[in-house]
Amino acid sequence: MIIIDGVTESGGKFRPSAWAEMLIEGVGLAHFGADHKIHYLPLIEPANINGNAAIIMDESLEELRPEAFAEIMRFAAENRLQVRHEEGDISDRHKEKNAAHRRARPAQRRHS
Question: How confident is the model at residue 73 (pLDDT cuts 50, 70, 90)?
Answer without folding.
Answer: very high
